[in-house]
Write a structure and sequence with these properties.
The protein folds into two domains: 3-129 and 267-305, Rossmann fold (3-Layer(aba) Sandwich), CATH 3.40.50.2300; 132-264, Response regulator (Rossmann fold), CATH 3.40.50. It contains twelve helices and 13 strands. It has helices at 3-26, 44-57, 71-83, 99-107, 132-147, 162-178, 194-207, 221-231, 247-255, 269-282, 291-294, 315-326; strands spanning 30-34, 60-64, 88-91, 112-115, 126-129, 151-157, 182-184, 188-189, 211-216, 239-243, 260-264, 302-304, 307-309. 43% of the residues are buried.
């Protein structure tokens, strides 16, 4: 066989392989993560590791939703995703208003898994994330320990979000059951915005100068609470316990304005949610001949991802984790 012929065959094979690869890529399954506050640093690991796991599985991944807390925009984004008929949806289950769209997706055969915030009243298959009721317990226990179980306690967080409401309820219940000398004030809504957390905390301190401890429940809370406490000249006097291991929160702990940080294992939210959807589509496991009709799926109802707590022993490790995430 002549050299020119071999070259021609090589070119044809190369073009054929390239065509097959492009064709497969064009038809790869797509999984979509639908959330809100998508530009908030707390969601960086959720999105990043969702995409990374998609690469390992050989599927397309996409993240949609507003940069802020605009739920109507999130609903519009979800409607558009459902219309595109993806292989699966990972949904931030903010509240029951999403149930109709979860039904629509499920009726079309699009499996839905919630992450971070659950809507158990919906037909979602699985929820992946933190046990927010237990998170409320952890913040309450830290509030108790930091104050010796005495004085007024305030909660600052996002009012109306189902996951945070569960945490608020358990915080209050834990204090009522374990700290008879503590009084829990009504929740102060920070709308998950740092500036709002700052202003409500400043107003709180002015109205309740005898406040003993302030608990921050979302990724924006601590960044507003700590400066307000510092500016009031009350650092170390008013105790601060906060959720989410973020740069601003770690700085609060370093300077002594905050006394406790509990974090969520957000690195695994996206990968576990995506893997669950992928397995629903590909595992081949069946329980009956009518699993789809009966809505029986090869997946657990809930996956509790647990907590990370910043301590003296692991502070440098957690600080490095935060620095690594800032590079993403």
């Amino acid at each position: 066989m002549g050299g020119n012929m071999i070259k021609k065959i090589g070119v044809v094979l190369s073009l054929t392989i390239s065509f097959i690869f492009v064709n497969l890529s064009a038809h790869a399954e797509e999984y979509v993560m639908v959330g809100f506050y998508n530009e908030h640093p707390v969601f960086i690991p959720d999105h990043h590791f969702f995409h990374e796991h998609g690469k390992k599985l050989g599927v397309k991944t996409r993240v949609v939703g507003p940069p802020d807390g605009n739920v109507p925009q999130m609903i519009t984004a979800l409607e558009q995703v459902i219309a595109s008929n993806p292989a699966g949806i990972v949904l931030l289950g903010v509240n029951d208003s999403l149930n109709v769209l979860v039904d629509e997706a499920m009726n079309k055969g699009i499996p839905v898994v919630t992450w971070d915030s659950d809507i158990p009243s919906s037909r979602r298959i699985t929820h992946v994330g933190t046990n927010w009721a237990q998170l409320g317990d952890k913040l309450a226990e830290a509030a108790y320990e930091s104050t010796g179980g005495k004085g007024k306690a305030a909660m600052v967080g996002l009012v109306g979000a189902s996951h945070m409401e569960a945490a608020f309820a358990n915080f209050k219940a834990w204090i009522a059951a374990n700290a008879p000398d503590m009084e829990v004030l009504p929740v102060f809504d920070d709308e998950a915005v740092v500036a709002k957390a700052h202003s409500v905390t400043a107003a709180l301190i002015q109205k309740h100068p005898d406040i003993a401890v302030i608990a921050g429940f979302n990724g924006s809370s601590g960044g507003g609470i700590c400066p307000a406490v510092r500016e009031a000249g009350r650092s170390g006097d008013i105790k601060v316990v906060i959720n989410d291991i973020l740069p601003a929160h770690m700085e609060c702990l370093k300077e002594g304005t905050a006394q406790y940080i509990v974090g969520q294992k957000r690195h695994i939210f996206g990968p576990i949610a995506l893997q669950t959807l992928y397995d629903i589509n590909h595992s081949g496991i069946s329980f009956t001949d009518r699993d789809s009709e009966l809505e029986i799926f090869p997946a657990p109802d809930k996956i509790d991802t647990g907590f990370l707590v910043v301590t003296e022993d692991n502070f440098s490790d957690m600080d490095q984790m935060v620095k690594n995430l800032e590079k993403l």
